[in-house]
Design a protein that fits this description.
Elements lengths: L4 H35 L8 H16 E2 L4 E2 L1 H17 L6 H38 L22
Antiparallel strand pairs: 1-2
Helix pairs in contact: 1-2, 1-3, 1-4, 2-4, 3-4
Protein backbone atom coordinates (compact mmCIF):
# COMPACT_ATOMS: atom_id res chain seq x y z
CA UNK A 1 0.00 0.00 0.00
CA UNK A 2 1.44 3.32 -1.04
CA UNK A 3 0.67 6.17 1.30
CA UNK A 4 1.82 9.71 0.61
CA UNK A 5 4.33 11.23 2.99
CA UNK A 6 1.92 14.05 3.83
CA UNK A 7 -0.76 11.50 4.77
CA UNK A 8 1.67 9.63 7.02
CA UNK A 9 2.69 12.89 8.67
CA UNK A 10 -0.97 13.76 9.27
CA UNK A 11 -1.58 10.32 10.77
CA UNK A 12 1.47 10.63 13.01
CA UNK A 13 0.40 14.10 14.17
CA UNK A 14 -3.09 12.81 15.00
CA UNK A 15 -1.61 9.84 16.89
CA UNK A 16 0.72 12.06 18.92
CA UNK A 17 -2.06 14.52 19.77
CA UNK A 18 -4.28 11.67 20.93
CA UNK A 19 -1.42 10.11 22.92
CA UNK A 20 -0.99 13.42 24.77
CA UNK A 21 -4.73 13.59 25.43
CA UNK A 22 -4.71 10.01 26.72
CA UNK A 23 -1.79 10.77 29.04
CA UNK A 24 -3.51 13.88 30.40
CA UNK A 25 -6.87 12.28 31.11
CA UNK A 26 -5.38 9.05 32.47
CA UNK A 27 -3.32 10.99 35.01
CA UNK A 28 -6.38 12.98 36.09
CA UNK A 29 -8.42 9.76 36.33
CA UNK A 30 -5.83 8.04 38.51
CA UNK A 31 -5.44 11.04 40.79
CA UNK A 32 -9.20 11.57 41.19
CA UNK A 33 -9.75 7.91 42.04
CA UNK A 34 -6.87 8.08 44.53
CA UNK A 35 -8.57 11.01 46.27
CA UNK A 36 -11.89 9.15 46.39
CA UNK A 37 -10.24 6.11 47.98
CA UNK A 38 -8.46 8.23 50.55
CA UNK A 39 -11.64 10.14 51.45
CA UNK A 40 -13.47 6.82 51.85
CA UNK A 41 -10.70 5.24 53.94
CA UNK A 42 -12.01 3.69 57.19
CA UNK A 43 -10.01 6.15 59.30
CA UNK A 44 -12.00 9.02 57.74
CA UNK A 45 -15.44 7.52 58.47
CA UNK A 46 -15.94 9.85 61.44
CA UNK A 47 -15.58 12.82 59.07
CA UNK A 48 -18.03 11.59 56.45
CA UNK A 49 -20.42 14.53 56.87
CA UNK A 50 -17.59 17.07 56.56
CA UNK A 51 -16.05 15.25 53.60
CA UNK A 52 -19.37 14.73 51.75
CA UNK A 53 -19.17 17.92 49.65
CA UNK A 54 -15.74 16.93 48.36
CA UNK A 55 -16.82 13.35 47.78
CA UNK A 56 -19.90 14.54 45.87
CA UNK A 57 -17.79 16.91 43.76
CA UNK A 58 -15.42 14.08 42.88
CA UNK A 59 -18.30 11.76 42.02
CA UNK A 60 -19.65 14.36 39.59
CA UNK A 61 -16.18 14.90 38.17
CA UNK A 62 -15.63 11.19 37.59
CA UNK A 63 -19.15 10.27 36.45
CA UNK A 64 -20.16 13.46 34.68
CA UNK A 65 -23.57 15.09 34.58
CA UNK A 66 -25.85 13.77 31.81
CA UNK A 67 -28.45 16.45 32.52
CA UNK A 68 -25.88 19.13 31.65
CA UNK A 69 -24.35 17.02 28.84
CA UNK A 70 -21.06 17.05 30.74
CA UNK A 71 -18.93 13.91 30.46
CA UNK A 72 -17.00 12.49 33.38
CA UNK A 73 -13.33 11.67 33.54
CA UNK A 74 -14.01 7.91 33.44
CA UNK A 75 -16.10 8.20 30.28
CA UNK A 76 -13.63 10.50 28.55
CA UNK A 77 -10.73 8.25 29.49
CA UNK A 78 -12.51 5.36 27.77
CA UNK A 79 -13.35 7.42 24.69
CA UNK A 80 -9.79 8.69 24.32
CA UNK A 81 -8.45 5.16 24.62
CA UNK A 82 -10.83 3.96 21.93
CA UNK A 83 -9.99 6.76 19.48
CA UNK A 84 -6.28 6.38 20.19
CA UNK A 85 -6.52 2.65 19.48
CA UNK A 86 -8.26 3.29 16.17
CA UNK A 87 -5.61 5.82 15.16
CA UNK A 88 -2.85 3.39 16.10
CA UNK A 89 -4.39 0.70 13.88
CA UNK A 90 -4.69 3.02 10.89
CA UNK A 91 -2.24 2.44 8.07
CA UNK A 92 -3.43 5.35 5.97
CA UNK A 93 -4.78 8.81 6.56
CA UNK A 94 -7.62 8.63 9.13
CA UNK A 95 -11.20 8.95 7.93
CA UNK A 96 -13.07 12.20 8.40
CA UNK A 97 -15.30 10.46 10.94
CA UNK A 98 -12.30 9.33 12.99
CA UNK A 99 -10.74 12.80 12.87
CA UNK A 100 -14.07 14.33 13.95
CA UNK A 101 -14.23 11.87 16.85
CA UNK A 102 -10.66 12.78 17.79
CA UNK A 103 -11.52 16.48 17.76
CA UNK A 104 -14.61 15.90 19.89
CA UNK A 105 -12.77 13.80 22.44
CA UNK A 106 -9.93 16.33 22.65
CA UNK A 107 -12.51 18.96 23.59
CA UNK A 108 -13.87 16.64 26.27
CA UNK A 109 -10.33 16.06 27.57
CA UNK A 110 -9.85 19.81 27.93
CA UNK A 111 -13.17 20.09 29.76
CA UNK A 112 -12.57 17.31 32.29
CA UNK A 113 -8.90 18.19 32.73
CA UNK A 114 -9.85 21.76 33.51
CA UNK A 115 -12.44 20.55 36.02
CA UNK A 116 -9.84 18.28 37.68
CA UNK A 117 -7.31 21.13 37.90
CA UNK A 118 -10.01 23.32 39.43
CA UNK A 119 -10.79 20.66 42.04
CA UNK A 120 -7.11 20.04 42.76
CA UNK A 121 -6.26 23.72 43.16
CA UNK A 122 -9.42 24.97 44.89
CA UNK A 123 -11.15 22.14 46.74
CA UNK A 124 -8.27 19.86 47.65
CA UNK A 125 -6.60 22.43 49.94
CA UNK A 126 -9.90 22.89 51.82
CA UNK A 127 -10.35 19.11 52.01
CA UNK A 128 -6.87 18.76 53.47
CA UNK A 129 -7.67 21.42 56.07
CA UNK A 130 -10.65 19.35 57.23
CA UNK A 131 -8.44 16.28 57.50
CA UNK A 132 -5.63 18.13 59.27
CA UNK A 133 -8.04 19.71 61.76
CA UNK A 134 -9.09 16.19 62.75
CA UNK A 135 -5.43 15.07 62.87
CA UNK A 136 -5.90 12.76 59.88
CA UNK A 137 -3.47 12.28 57.01
CA UNK A 138 -3.67 14.73 54.12
CA UNK A 139 -4.65 13.49 50.67
CA UNK A 140 -1.59 12.12 48.90
CA UNK A 141 -1.96 12.60 45.13
CA UNK A 142 1.13 10.47 44.54
CA UNK A 143 -0.53 7.42 46.09
CA UNK A 144 -2.08 5.33 43.32
CA UNK A 145 -5.61 4.03 43.77
CA UNK A 146 -5.95 0.37 44.67
CA UNK A 147 -9.13 -0.11 42.68
CA UNK A 148 -10.21 1.41 39.38
CA UNK A 149 -13.37 0.83 37.38
CA UNK A 150 -13.07 -1.35 34.28
CA UNK A 151 -14.48 1.38 32.03
CA UNK A 152 -11.95 2.65 29.54
CA UNK A 153 -9.86 -0.52 29.71
CA UNK A 154 -11.66 -2.33 26.93
CA UNK A 155 -9.99 -3.07 23.61
Amino acid sequence: IHTATADLEALHAAQMTMADALDTVAKADLAAHAVVEQINAPQNASLSAQLAPYSDALKALLSGDPAKHRPGIDEVNGAVGQVYGELEQADAVPTEALMAAATDVQGEVKEVSSAWVDFRENQLPALNKVLEAAHHARINLAKPPADLPDEGDQD
